[in-house]
Structure formats: structure tokens, C-alpha cells
């Protein structure tokens, strides 16, 4: 296995269900040991890509390679990847220990050995002593951990996670995010994480692929995705963005094209105060929403659009009682991101260019 | 939901009438099995155990019970195997003609028994050139017993979904291992329920049996029909009927207990 071999390589991957292109020509390299997220709204094709990698679906065209080996035609049991399912899919008629030991059992490992390894795996997910219970007797978070233990005890080369935290409540989610990250570091294997939660993707990932309508709209580090979205879709889907269309851009920036500015990059001041930014626009404060650590201010600009400004809460902030008053909104040139007008085929974007086919 | 006391009283009355209509005749049979009258007269003129003694010494009746059990067991086993395979194929795989096959599997239960009987009688004797025997009865019964197993198993497969099987394959298990360790254990109670129904269906079948049994094979329903109107046999038939009622309560009770236990476990 060459060192420069990607853990997973997808080439021209396409999957059609009836008349629908669920996955539409996806090219992607995922490195060994990478925490890689596939982010997108439901129906964007991210889960189908995961199922194609696992082997539950056959691609209409294109190939899936694991560590340089073409596995497109192999059955799921013949691929060195394991999946943590959205609904966990723990076998209800088996004890927790037997669930975790299942992968070892079907590989023919004797009972004593596999139970020892399964107990170890349960310990790494902090579930010692739960081995004799049935999955039905566990809480959501515990089931989640059992599913993780079951998928990792067989030492896969990559772990596929299909919205694994989707069923958990917020507190548990945040806790499991930390545990996932730790587990990935500990195991040192590739994690491919499917989610529709942009915050989750930004928090956990080394790299993110943003999916839209079966294609990868943008591929990059969390910072690249967040700070330099390439399209209105990415700008709007990942976090909140104030989008200036062509007309507004000409008006405010003096140049054409579509631009976006993050709410937290904008400043707001009363009409009579200077805010010292490159761009300044006047408007009327429409709504003030207090969200704890910060305040979200909605402003109707005189140029005919509505923007959201996020301000840290400090003493001199514009207050709720000023709703309806005239304000100024400003931002710096460097926080203005130029967006491509429409989704652009992956091959045409510098960010998305695949590495040259390596000399093998 | 709250009901007025009038509605509740009315519903209770209807329930009692319906249950009485079902079970009082069975009580009559039970009482008659101890009656000194041989012609099923009511009320019974006296009490005797004579028929019970006779019934357990009646070679014809005992033979018929044995034959029926053999037929029902064999038909049930065939149905379990073929019904499970058919439901797996139709629920888990896509292939040309799937809908048609699905309909064809279920159809026999809807066909009038007399049609099935005549058709099979014809096919066995004139086309295949077979002697009617216990084997032809078993095959005939299996044609419609499959449906109960098929329906039970396919409903369970639909309920289970494919995620357990996906997970098993994902963890390295081949198709057969997945069936043995994951699918089959979760089908067990559906197979039990389907098998029980298949057994019951075969055990009291009379029309198809008439056409496919020939003269040498006497299942219990055939024997009862033959003997019901013979004056000295009628009370014995009553005894057999009572025994059958008692025997059939047991599996139904077990099936209910299993269903109840599963509901709690889920």
C-alpha cells in the first residue's frame, strides 16, 4: 500500500434512481486518517455516496476504490469499511456484548477471544458492565456508543457514519461530538461523516464536501468553506450569509457579481456615529433578537434589501428600544466574498481540482 | 375514550351475545359427549362415560387422528420452507415478474376449495398419472398452507426493514450467515404463528381432501363426516370433537403468550 494512495477514491460516481440523479458524477479523494464530512440538505446525495462506498448500493457508473483497489463490484461484507447507521441497527435479539462481537464472530474468532475484544471495545466507549443488556434497555446515547464499538472492533480501514448524532438531543450531541473526535484520533483511521448540521461539520472535520443536488458544490477545510464560500448555496447553507446580488453589488461595491458578507463581520451604529469600515450603508432597524451571548439585528437597508448583523453584547450596543430608528451598517472589503453565480461543474473550480493521477 | 353508560351496557350485551353464539354450541358438544342418548337429543337424558371409553378404543378414529396429524405436519413443514423462501425473494429482491409471482402465491387461499380439489384431482390422476395417496393430500394442502406462512413472514420482513441485514453484511457476514444469525431469529415468532395457522388449516380441511385423498386415506374430518350420522358413532364423534377443542386451545394460548412477550420486549 503506497503512502500517497488515498484511503478512498471516487471517480465519476453516479447513481440514478428512476429519473432522479441522486449522485451526479462525484470525483473525490479522501486521505488516510482524515476526518471527512459530507454536508448537505436531505436529498443532496450525501447518504447515497456513503451507501455506495459501503456497498449497499451499486453505482450506475463510476468507481469506488479503497486504498488503490477497485471495490465497485464487491459486496459490503467484502469491503474493509464499516458503517455506523443512522438508526444504529443494533440487533435487538442479541445482547450488547454479542452485538459488538458480531463482526468477529462471523470472521470465525472463538467465543472467548471475541468476547474479550468486545469487552475492551465497550470499555473504550465507556460502557463497561453493559454487555449483558439488550439494546432495547439502553438510552439513545448508549446505543450510539454500542454502534461505534461494534463498527470499530473489527478494525476497519475507514469508518462511515451516517448522521450518527441525528437522533440525540443537543447536550448529548455536543458530548458525542467530542467523543467522536477523540475516538478518531485514537484509532487513526479515516472517518467519513454524513451530516446536514453545518455546525457539526465545521466543528469536527479536517475537510468538508458540501453537497447539492448530487454534486459536490465545494470542497475544502472548515475555514475555507465558511470564510470563502464559492456559491450562494454554500454561503447560505453553511452559516448565515447576507447576499448581495448583481444589482446591489454594483450599487454598494461599485462592481458586478454576487457577493456575500457574514453577519458577524458587519458592524452597526446609530445614524450619527461613525463605524470606521470600508463600506457603509444606511437603513432602518427592523428587528432586534437577543440570543444570549450576542444580539441579532435585522436591518432594512435603503438600497432595498434586508441584512442580518450579529453583534457581541456589550454596554453600548444598539438596544431593543431603538427598533424603527435609523442606523448605519458597515463592513470591510476583506470580509466581502465573491460568489460564483451558479453551481459550477466541479472540474472548473480550482478548489475542487483533484490531484493529478499519482504515479503508481 | 369515554363512553356513556348506555353505550357501554349495549356493547357489553352485544359482546356477550356474540361470544355465546360461538361458544354455547361447543358446550353442547361437550355435554353431549357424556349423554346417554345416541342421537344428539337435548336435554341429555342421562350421564355416561361410555363414549369416552369407546372413543379411545376406536381404531378408525385413532387412525384418522394420526393421518391428519401426519398430513398437517408435512404440509406445514413444506409451507414453512417454501413460504419463507418465497417471501424473502419477493420482499428482498427485485426481479422481472415479481408482482405476478406475489399474486400467484397468495391466490390459492382465495380459490374455492372445490375448484382446487377438482383441478388437483385431475392433474394428479390424468396428467401426472399418480395414485391418490397421503402424499397427494399433503401436496394439495401445502398449496394453500403456504399462503399463511408467506403472509406472516412477508409482513415481518417488511416491518424489520433491511437495516439489520445491511449492518450484518457491513460487519462481514455473507448472505447465509446473515440469514442464520440475524434474519431467521427475528422471523421465528412469525414462522411459529404462520406454521400454527397452516397446521390448523390443513387439520380441518375437508373439500380439497375429499378430491385428493382417494379411498385409502381417512383424515379426521373425513372420518367425522362419515360417522356423524351413524347412530352408534355420533357420541364418539362428540368425544373426538371435545378432545380437539382442548388440544387446539394449547397452541393458540402459546401463540398469544409469545406475541404478548414480544410486544413487551420491543
From TrEMBL, chain A:
GO terms for cellular component: ATP-binding cassette (ABC) transporter complex. The keyword Signal does not apply. Gene3D superfamilies: P-loop containing nucleotide triphosphate hydrolases. Keywords: ATP-binding, Nucleotide-binding, Transport. Residues 8-238 form the ABC transporter domain. GO terms for molecular function: ATP binding; ATP hydrolysis activity; transmembrane transporter activity. Signal peptide: none annotated. It comes from the Bacteria. SUPFAM superfamilies: MOP-like, P-loop containing nucleoside triphosphate hydrolases. The keyword Transferase does not apply. This is ABC transporter ATP-binding protein. It comes from Cryobacterium algoritolerans. The lineage of its organism: Bacteria, Bacillati, Actinomycetota, Actinomycetes, Micrococcales.
TrEMBL record, chain B:
The chain crosses the membrane at residues 12-35, 55-88, 100-120, 126-150, 190-214, 234-254. It is a multi-pass membrane protein. Gene3D superfamilies: MetI-like. GO terms for biological process: transmembrane transport. It is found in: Cell membrane. InterPro entries: Bact_Polyamine_Transport, MetI-like, MetI-like_sf. Its main location: membrane. Keywords: Cell membrane, Membrane, Transmembrane, Transmembrane helix, Transport. Belongs to the binding-protein-dependent transport system permease family. CysTW subfamily. PANTHER family: PUTRESCINE TRANSPORT SYSTEM PERMEASE PROTEIN POTI. This is ABC transporter permease.
Amino acid at each position: 500500500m503506497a503512502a500517497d494512495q488515498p484511503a478512498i477514491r471516487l471517480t465519476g460516481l453516479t447513481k440514478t434512481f428512476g429519473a432522479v440523479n441522486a449522485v451526479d458524477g462525484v470525483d473525490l479523494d479522501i486521505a488516510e486518517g482524515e476526518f471527512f464530512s459530507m454536508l448537505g440538505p436531505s436529498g443532496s446525495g450525501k447518504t447515497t455516496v456513503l451507501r455506495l462506498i459501503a456497498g449497499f448500493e451499486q453505482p450506475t457508473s463510476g468507481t469506488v476504490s479503497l486504498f488503490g483497489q477497485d471495490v465497485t463490484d464487491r459486496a459490503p461484507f467484502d469491503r474493509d469499511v464499516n458503517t455506523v447507521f443512522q438508526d444504529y441497527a443494533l440487533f435487538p435479539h442479541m445482547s450488547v456484548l454479542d452485538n459488538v462481537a458480531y463482526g468477529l464472530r462471523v470472521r470465525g474468532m472463538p467465543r472467548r477471544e471475541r468476547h474479550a475484544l468486545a469487552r475492551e471495545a465497550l470499555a473504550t466507549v465507556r460502557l463497561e458492565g453493559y454487555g449483558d443488556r439488550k439494546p432495547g434497555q439502553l438510552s439513545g446515547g448508549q446505543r450510539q456508543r454500542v454502534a461505534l464499538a461494534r463498527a470499530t472492533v473489527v478494525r476497519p480501514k475507514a469508518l462511515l457514519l451516517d448522521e450518527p448524532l441525528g437522533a440525540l438531543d443537543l447536550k448529548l450531541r455536543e458530548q458525542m461530538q467530542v467523543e467522536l473526535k477523540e475516538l478518531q484520533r485514537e484509532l487513526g483511521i479515516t472517518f467519513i461523516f454524513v451530516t446536514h448540521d453545518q455546525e457539526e461539520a465545521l466543528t469536527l472535520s479536517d475537510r468538508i464536501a458540501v453537497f447539492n443536488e448530487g454534486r459536490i458544490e465545494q470542497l475544502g477545510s472548515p475555514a475555507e468553506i465558511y470564510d470563502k464560500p464559492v456559491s450562494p448555496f454554500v454561503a447560505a447553507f453553511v452559516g448565515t450569509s447576507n447576499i448581495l446580488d448583481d444589482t446591489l453589488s454594483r450599487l454598494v461595491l461599485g462592481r458586478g457579481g454576487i457577493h456575500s458578507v457574514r453577519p458577524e463581520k458587519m458592524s452597526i451604529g446609530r445614524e450619527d456615529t461613525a463605524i470606521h469600515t470600508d463600506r457603509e450603508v444606511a437603513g432602518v432597524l427592523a428587528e432586534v433578537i437577543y440570543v444570549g451571548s450576542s444580539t441579532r439585528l435585522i436591518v432594512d437597508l435603503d438600497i432595498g434589501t434586508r441584512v442580518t448583523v450579529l453583534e457581541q453584547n456589550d454596554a453600548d450596543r444598539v438596544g431593543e428600544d431603538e427598533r424603527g430608528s435609523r442606523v448605519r451598517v458597515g463592513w470591510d472589503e476583506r470580509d466581502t466574498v465573491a460568489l460564483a453565480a451558479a453551481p459550477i461543474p466541479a472540474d472548473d473550480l480550482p478548489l475542487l481540482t483533484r490531484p493529478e493521477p499519482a504515479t503508481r | 375514550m369515554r363512553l356513556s353508560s348506555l353505550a357501554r351496557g349495549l356493547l357489553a350485551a352485544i359482546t356477550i351475545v356474540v361470544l355465546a353464539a360461538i361458544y354455547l354450541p361447543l358446550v353442547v358438544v361437550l355435554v353431549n359427549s357424556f349423554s346417554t342418548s345416541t342421537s344428539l337429543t337435548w336435554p341429555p337424558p342421562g350421564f355416561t362415560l361410555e363414549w369416552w371409553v369407546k372413543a379411545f378404543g376406536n381404531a378408525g378414529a385413532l387412525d384418522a387422528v394420526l393421518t391428519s396429524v401426519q398430513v398437517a405436519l408435512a404440509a406445514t413443514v413444506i409451507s414453512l420452507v417454501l413460504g419463507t423462501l418465497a417471501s424473502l425473494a419477493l420482499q428482498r429482491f427485485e426481479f422481472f415478474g415479481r408482482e405476478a409471482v406475489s399474486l400467484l402465491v397468495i391466490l390459492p387461499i382465495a380459490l374455492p376449495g372445490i375448484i382446487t380439489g377438482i383441478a388437483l384431482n385431475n392433474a394428479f390422476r390424468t396428467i401426472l398419472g399418480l395414485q391418490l395417496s397421503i402424499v397427494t393430500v399433503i401436496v394439495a394442502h401445502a398449496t394453500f398452507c403456504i399462503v399463511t406462512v408467506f403472509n406472516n413472514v412477508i409482513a415481518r420482513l417488511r416491518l424489520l426493514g433491511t437495516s439489520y441485514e445491511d449492518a450484518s453484511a457491513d460487519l462481514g457476514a455473507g448472505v447465509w450467515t446473515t440469514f442464520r444469525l440475524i434474519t431467521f431469529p427475528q422471523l421465528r415468532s412469525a414462522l411459529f404463528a404462520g406454521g400454527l395457522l397452516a397446521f390448523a388449516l390443513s387439520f380441518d380441511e375437508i373439500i380439497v381432501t375429499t378430491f385428493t385423498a382417494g379411498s385409502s386415506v381417512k383424515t379426521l374430518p373425513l372420518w367425522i363426516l362419515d360417522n356423524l350420522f351413524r347412530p352408534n358413532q355420533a357420541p364418539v364423534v362428540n368425544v373426538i370433537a371435545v378432545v380437539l377443542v382442548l388440544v387446539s386451545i394449547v397452541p393458540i394460548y402459546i401463540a398469544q403468550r409469545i406475541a404478548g412477550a414480544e410486544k413487551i420486549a420491543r
